[in-house]
Write a structure and sequence with these properties.
Chain lengths: ~120, ~400
């Protein structure tokens, strides 16, 4: 397992994403709410660049005790990243495909050494 | 460029470059040697609404042309009906929609041809059947004469400006103004022999009966010329039954199949397969799951009520097996169901690969190539050989020629 330099922390703003290439691997590295996450950049659907699209809050539907819907809302806590080819959404914290959580992108470890960010590819 | 997401937050995405966006498609194509397989995409799209300044001058009627051009200049109205709530881009999640205008092309060549070449090259598609996007709603236009003239203008522009610049790699099934059968016939007679015209296309979002006697002369003219008749499906939230849907996903999932089911039923039950046995009929963009449903449903009822379909000499499903179907959007969720569907529809001889690119639910050639139950011959047929025979498209390299011969699709 090799450590692959991603970026300086100071060059990696919160909400940003960077794509790292290592031989035949492509890894998307996100910085979200101060945390770093890294996943395979190959969508589990048709192989699209899963990490190169939008990051966007999870959409929730609020159901009241009487089972009526109060409509759609953006989550205050959960963020998804979206494959730009077809819209497959993935949970930022786990890499799970949110429409079938049995499917999960390969996750990579991210190391921070001083001002440098590395991904273990 | 930045796109706005939740609560005004902005996310940076790169400007659109189709070749770069589809880099993984190219990787798939290289890994699978797709350049050695003749691949025909029987349903790809461009955004003709971005070319109205070139299209509208081809309108024949001075008054209608003035209405469209003047209204467009001031941004006052839509030329073709559009539908509120049609969030194809998923709120910007499918980024090629909001970034489309950022893609750079070379001046001096038609932009739509350049964009088409980029996605075709990425996917290793050799030939594409080019369809419009907004004009898929032309059947909803309240003015028949406007539908006729807009189809006329689009068909002239496409055959005189766009297709000639594609070097033979793009062809089309031209838009038929189906609300006016006489005008349909005139357009078949006018454009049917032009280079790159493989047939004509009826947008299915309509309540007209395809079995109406008024259309028989149109079908006959196409059959005589060896042209294919395509039915391109779509959704319609304004259709009374779909007003019961509250989400676009529901309208979209049901609508495309619904309109194909509707018109295919009329086509089969009224014996049009018997009346026009040499007319190639293609059902486009309804997915595949509706096909075994309709086969079973019609066969079951026909066995009990043959007197309501007296022209039929065999079961409805057998007429359906005589027709062609585009593959997209292929519902790969249950492989056993998919294998059964392929078997029921005789996919190895009747299914035509389609990407539907650049629309949001496009399919790559790998969706066909990677199916574990298909033989190599079936893969080659579906990806392009069947369409190549149908539309007389030659191989583009020696390896493709070799494969066409190997699988019986070209004489040695």
């Amino acid at each position: 397992m090799a450590e692959k330099f991603v970026a300086k922390v100071s060059d990696f703003k919160d909400g940003d994403r960077k794509i790292v290439f290592d031989r035949d691997k492509e890894i998307g590295v996100f910085r979200e709410n101060g945390q770093f996450y890294a996943y395979s950049n190959y969508c589990l659907h048709q192989g699209g660049p899963a990490c190169e699209g939008l990051t966007i809050a999870k959409v929730e539907e609020r159901i009241m005790p009487d089972k009526t819907s109060r409509g759609l809302f953006f989550s205050e806590t959960d963020v998804h990243f979206v494959c730009p080819w077809h819209g497959y959404e993935y949970d930022m914290k786990t890499g799970e495909c949110v429409s079938d959580r049995r499917l999960r992108l390969k996750k990579y470890k991210v190391l921070q050494k001083g001002d440098d960010v590395y991904v273990v590819a | 460029m930045e796109l706005v997401v939740e609560r005004g937050r902005r996310v940076y995405v790169e400007e659109l470059n189709t070749t770069k966006l589809l880099a993984h498609a190219r990787q798939q194509a290289v890994k699978r040697n797709f350049d050695d397989i003749l691949i025909v995409d029987c349903d790809a799209h461009h955004y003709e609404n971005e070319n109205y300044s070139d299209i509208l001058p081809f309108m024949e009627n001075d008054v209608l042309r003035q209405v469209t051009v003047s209204g467009r200049a001031k941004g006052r109205h839509n030329i073709v009906p559009s539908q509120a709530g049609f969030t194809q881009d998923m709120g910007g999640r499918v980024t090629r929609y909001p970034t489309r205008s950022s893609e750079k092309t070379d001046p001096g060549r038609i932009r739509d041809v350049q964009l088409g070449e980029r996605w075709m090259d990425a996917m290793s598609v050799d030939y594409s059947c080019l369809f419009p996007t907004g004009m898929l709603n032309i059947g909803l236009h309240p003015q028949k004469e406007m539908e006729v003239d807009l189809c006329w203008a689009y068909n002239r522009w496409l055959t005189e400006k766009v297709l000639p610049e594609s070097g033979g790699r793009m062809y089309s099934a031209l838009c038929l103004p189906f609300s006016d059968p006489d005008a349909c016939l005139r357009q078949v007679e006018t454009f049917g022999d032009r280079k790159g015209v493989a047939g004509f296309m009826v947008t299915t979002v309509r309540n007209l009966q395809v079995n109406d006697n008024a259309y028989m002369k149109v079908y006959r003219a196409m059959e005589e010329r060896g042209l294919a008749l395509s039915f391109h499906s779509g959704p319609n939230w304004s259709e009374p039954v779909f007003r019961a849907c509250n989400r676009f996903i529901s309208v979209h999932a049901l609508g495309f199949s619904f309109y194909n089911i509707l018109h295919c039923t009329n086509w089969v039950i009224n014996g049009l397969g018997e009346r026009f046995p040499k007319l190639a009929v293609i059902w486009i963009e309804g997915g595949l799951a509706w096909i075994p449903f309709l086969m079973q449903r019609l066969d079951n009822e026909y066995m009990m009520r043959p007197s309501e379909a007296p022209l039929l000499k065999k079961k409805p499903s057998e007429y359906m097996r005589d027709m062609y179907y585009s593959s997209q959007p292929i519902e790969i969720q249950n492989l056993k169901a998919m294998e059964c569907t392929f078997d029921m529809m005789d996919a190895k001889n009747r299914l035509l690969y389609a990407s539907d690119y650049p629309h949001w639910d496009f399919d790559l050639p790998s969706t066909i190539y990677d199916l574990p139950f298909l033989s190599e011959k079936a893969k080659h047929n579906i990806l392009g050989a069947t369409a190549a025979r149908l539309f007389k498209l030659p191989p583009r390299n020696a390896k493709q020629q070799e494969n066409l011969i190997k699988y019986g699709n070209l004489a040695a």
